[in-house]
Every structure is written in structure tokens, then in C-alpha cells.
Design a protein that fits this description.
The protein is α+β, with helices and mostly antiparallel strands. 54% of the residues lie in helices and 17% in strands. The strands form two sheets. It has a six-stranded mixed beta barrel with strand order 3-4-9-6-8-7, surrounded by five helices.
Length: 413
Amino acid sequence: MIVREAIREALRTLAAQKLRAALTLFGFVWGTAAVIFLVAWGDGVRTMLDVGFAKTGRNLGVIDPGTLGVDYVPITDRRYVWFDVDDLEAVRARAKWPALVGGEEKRFAMASFGQTAFSVDLRGVEPETIEIRGVPIEAGRGITRTDLRRNRRVVVLGAELRRELLGAHGGLGSWVRIDGTPFEVVGILAPVGVQLNRDGRLIDDQAWVPLATYHSYWPRTWTEEAVVGRILYQARDRRFYETTRDEIRAILADRLGVPRTDHSAIDSWSPMERLNALPVDQMRGLMFVIAATTLMIGGVGILTMMLDSVQERRTEIGVRLAVGARRRDVLVQFFIESMVVSVIGGVLGVALGILSCAALAALDLPDVVPVPELSVSVIAIALGVMTATGFAAALLPAWRAVGVAPSVTLRME
């Protein structure tokens, strides 16, 4: 009974002070919506970065050759190091941690089809490289071991390159010229979109040929070795990335005769490493603090309004206490009244937050724009902060109400 009466009284208080109630509720609604939107947006940023980096390759790690470090050799003895096919095969045979190991060479070359010609990002790859990159084949097939063994002149085109180079008149089975040499188009990659941490052009703009064929037509002029510009690997799990990287680096360092700790000679990077280095979690925490502070300011509005209500109803409270009402009943009544105002503002705020997230998610935004990610945990966090703020804002008015002295109040009247 006291609950129903308290709810009615809370609604009467809101109706009697429309402007102040509207301003107070606006602060609480806005604060609750901000908690949902900003926390969801922080999750969206994390997902956007994760997806963007993953487009380079799932659990991808890259090992690049470099120059002997100045901390290990005199400046006059510094030299370049490079990987060849034997190094690649040694890693593939000896490394226990990676799920996959593949080689890659790259350069820019002139590709032409009919009257269309332009410079493209040409990659010499292996089947493992394609699997590590994780790009689905939309049409045709990828590069096979047979292609490598037979030095086949076949090429797989990125989605955008296929559109620009072949246009409406070409497709699978077409022959394109790369630096004047004809290559048969045997595969078209599915669109990848914007990828973070890219090297060279996007995968959508690349042309992939067998690594052995690449060595035949575009050898390094300063050596007869079949150079592998970089070694790609896929960690079995993100947790094992560092172990996998260190094992491969150690194998290569031993073969090349360079110190294992010389990161200038054998460099490594990974999208996972780049992602972990970004302060995404800290930024999400900062967003939460900003939103929670906004909500607390809304709570102060409720607190002020209810304190005024207690002050205006001192006579009513004094009379009730004088005729035998228990102080506990008065405490509960004003506590419930304050919580009702908080709940109304909170529910409206949750609805506004969800609608804002849904509206932004419905827009056709570029891949690099994060979209708020609504989840049960996000709404639970907002409800938790809203309840805590409402509870805190309800305590003081209720305590002030129960502190009214009936004799003093009635004497003053």
C-alpha cells in the first residue's frame, strides 16, 4: 500500500513542478543514454580495430629481413640480410608453434588488359600465404602447389583490381599482361574492404601470382638466390603469438648467423601487437567515466528536487508522525518517491541510448567509422550505474524527511 501511495505522490510531485521536473529528468535521461551510447561505442571501436587488423590476416605475424644492428657489429661491417626459399622451408620444417608459414615477394608492375593499363601491387605468394591472409576466393581458385612446381603463369586478382582492369569484358580465363608477360586469370578474390596496418595497396587492389613464377620473371638482380621478401605465419592462438614469433626468429637468426636479439637484422610485427599497443581499453574506461559523471549530475538534480519536496511537506510529515506514523514508513515513502523519479528517467534514458545506437548502426558508414555495439552487458552496466545513482540520490531526501521533529514543526505552524 505504501508503495502505491509513494508512486502516486512521486507523480504528483513531478506534475506539480513541471519545468523543474523536466530539467531534472532530462539530466538523468541524458546521463543514462550517454552511458549506453559511449560504452557501446567503445566496444564498437575495439571491434572495428580488431576486424580492420584481421583483414590483413587472422592471427598474422610477419618477419622482415633488415640490416645488422649497430649494437652488434661495427658500422663498417654492417650488411643487409635477406631470406631465401631454403630459409622459408627450414622455418616450415622446424618451427613447431605456427599453424601456417608462407612466403611473399612484392613489387609494383604494369598490368594491362585490352586498352587498360596501370601499375598494380604484384605479390608472389604460396597457397599457405593465401590461407594466412584469410581472403575467400569469390570465383575460380587460388594459387596451388602445382602452380608453383610448374611455374605457371596464372594470376589471382583482388576484387577492385578485377573491376578496374578487366571491366565488363573480362573474367576468369582472361589473359592479362604483367610487365608484358601474359598471365591467365584463374581466381577472383572476394572484396576485403579497408584493412588497417596495410603494407602497400589494399588486398582488393593486389594481383597474386605463384611465388616460383615471380622468381622466374622478377628475380633480384644482385643475387641468384630465390629471395623471399618476407615470411608470414599464423599463430595457433593469440596467446601464443610471442612464443611463435620468437621460435621463428631464432631459426632464421641461426641460419643467417646473426644474433637472435638483433631486431634490426630480423624484424617482426603483427596486427595483434599493433592492436594491443593501442589504448583501446583505457579509452573505453575514459568514456565510461565521462558518461557516469554526466549521469551523476542528473542524480544531483533529482536529489535537489526531492529535498525541496521534503522541505515543502514538512507540515504533512510532522502531522503524520504526531498521529502515530512510524518513522520507518516516512523513510520508505520518500525513498520510494525518489527512486520512482530515478526509474522514470532511467527507463527513458535506456530507450534513448538504444535508439541512438540502433540509428547509427542503420547508417551506411565507412569501415573505419566505429559503430556502437549494443549488448546485454552494456545495458546491464547502464542500469547498474543508474540504480546506484538513483539510490544515492534517494537516500538523503528520505533521511531528511525522517529527521523532521513533529513538535517543532507543528509549533512553527
